[in-house]
Design goal:
The complex is a heterodimer of chains A (224) and B (239).
Chain A: H1 2-21, E1 26-27, H2 28-38, H3 47-59, E2 63-68, E3 74-78, H4 80-91, H5 103-112, H6 123-151, H7 160-193
Antiparallel strand pairs in A: 1-3, 2-3
Chain B: E1 5-16, E2 19-31, E3 36-40, H1 47-54, E4 62-67, E5 70-71, H2 77-87, E6 88-91, H3 103-113, H4 118-131, H5 147-159, E7 165-169, H6 177-192, E8 196-200, E9 212-217, E10 220-226
Parallel strand pairs in B: 3-8, 3-9, 6-7, 7-8
Antiparallel strand pairs in B: 1-2, 1-4, 4-5, 9-10
Chain lengths: 224, 239
């Protein structure tokens, strides 16, 4: 998660600032606040990053100083080149590289290639543990979303636009977690079909909140 | 609040040719008012059997099953029917709506069969339809409604009257994704209004709205995930 965060912040700021300047000149602190509000506060910026980025954009001829107010704050405006660049960026679909080292995927894949008999780990333990965590995560996001939807006052309210951005973020996170859960279920099934995950029966007399190191005991053909 | 459904040490087997198959093995379970619980697991894990035992559709071989303070184990068939009529609303994937009756008549039917007067049953049916967002189409027949709307009629029928428990077996299984989401939201709202809701789903990804996700494996509860009660800080989401 940490790498995802750092990566996202560095990649979108330059273009993000160009987009925000599309509505008219703004100074640095204003851009910071607008960026965070527009992205549901998911990618916090520090104002230093904003000024450094503005300087680079100015150097590249994409923005120019517009005016200095009474308090000495300099506002920046898009140049024609900057406007072209922002429209190009927005209207070009992102190409996704093969996702770099996702730690969840890595654990499952490595467990699948390890041999429990030789001291490796049973992949179903890894899958179970991750499934529980992902589910708890999904429940939390779902609850936050329904809470936000209930308190939503509409876009006319000054906080409405922030809420909309936040809801869009939550929708995305919910879909990502749902996809991960489905992948974990499929992975478990595929490993069993391939004979990698053992099909042990669970210990008898198991009750709630049993230890998380449950081996996968699924048995086909029982009544459901 | 005390539990509306309590299972203690419940086991249940079914014959499968010569052998017996353990569908449930020594399961403890509680369902409380205001709570939405999802039962998940693969086919064959016992999740539907657990729901059916809670609903008095299957009888436990061993163990105690109490619904709204009454034991299903010692109930006579007549008492069982009463308990189901008074407390339990059951929603299946296959809707079981009667095609020749309107939405309101379908919803009112269980009340009328229970001896309630037609007029009073009808007014309760209208209330239940309104609470599932179908207040404007009580006179539509099932084939004039969409799949999602028909499922909502089935939920209205499950909650009509004074019922406090909804049991739903794969309630979104036959629906497209959007209608399915609406049905889950609707069941969530019923739980928020104080009903106890138990749903069975094979798709764990759908269980995000639940307060508790109970995973069954080979007839036993293999894990329980409780919804965390505290808000995450926004920044925590990304760090």
């Amino acid at each position: 998660m940490h790498t995802e965060y750092a990566y996202s912040v560095s990649m979108g700021i330059r273009e993000g600032l160009l987009v925000l300047l599309g509505d008219g000149p703004k100074y640095g602190y204003q851009l910071k606040v607008d960026f965070e509000s527009a992205t549901g506060e998911a990618w916090p910026l520090n104002v230093g990053q904003v000024y450094t980025t503005l300087q680079r954009l100015e150097r590249d001829g994409l923005v120019a100083e517009a005016e200095t107010d009474d308090e000495g704050r300099v506002s920046y405006a898009l140049t024609d080149g900057g406007r072209t660049e922002f429209i190009d960026w927005m209207t070009t679909a992102e190409k996704r590289a093969v996702p770099a080292r996702d730690e969840v995927a890595m654990k499952v894949l490595l467990a699948a290639s390890s041999d429990p008999a030789a001291g490796g780990i049973d992949p179903s333990i890894v899958i179970d543990e991750q499934r529980r965590a992902t589910m708890a995560n999904l429940q939390e996001y779902t609850r936050l979303r329904s809470k936000t939807e209930k308190s939503s006052v509409g876009v006319d309210d000054p906080s409405g636009a922030d809420e909309l951005a936040w809801l869009l973020q939550l929708d995305r996170l919910i879909h990502l977690r749902q996809a991960e859960l489905r992948w974990l279920d499929d992975a478990e099934e595929r490993l069993q079909t391939a004979g990698v995950a053992p099909r042990k029966r669970p210990a008898a007399n198991r009750s709630k909140n049993t230890s998380s190191t449950t081996p996968d005991p699924t048995r086909e053909g029982t009544q459901s | 609040m005390s539990a509306l459904i309590t299972l203690k040490g419940v086991s249940k087997s079914f014959p499968n040719g010569e052998a017996m198959i353990d569908a449930l093995r020594n399961v403890d379970f509680e369902l409380h008012p205001g709570e939405l619980v999802a039962l998940t697991g693969r086919s064959g894990s016992g999740k539907s059997t657990l729901l059916n035992v809670c609903g008095g559709i299957d009888r436990a071989d061993v163990g105690a099953v109490d619904v709204a303070g009454r034991s299903l184990v010692s109930a006579t068939p007549t008492e069982l029917a009463e308990i189901r009529r008074d407390h339990l609303g059951i929603v299946f994937q296959q809707l079981n709506l009667i095609p020749s009756l309107t939405a309101a008549e379908n919803v009112a039917l269980p009340l009328e069969l229970g001896g309630e007067r037609v007029r009073s049953a009808r007014s309760k049916a209208d209330e239940a339809l309104a609470s599932v967002g179908l207040g404007d189409r009580p006179d539509h027949f099932p084939d004039q409604l969409s799949g999602g709307e028909r499922q909502r009629v089935a939920i209205a029928r499950a909650i009509v009257g004074t019922k406090r428990i909804i049991l739903a077996d794969e309630p979104t299984g036959a629906l497209d994704e959007r209608s399915g989401d609406q049905i889950l939201e609707l069941l969530r709202a019923q739980a928020d209004a104080g009903l106890a809701v138990l749903i069975v789903t094979h798709d764990r990804a759908l269980a995000g709205l639940a307060d508790r996700v109970v995973d069954l494996r080979d007839g036993a509860i293999s894990s329980v995930v409780e919804r965390p009660g505290v808000d995450l800080e926004l920044t925590e989401l990304w760090s």
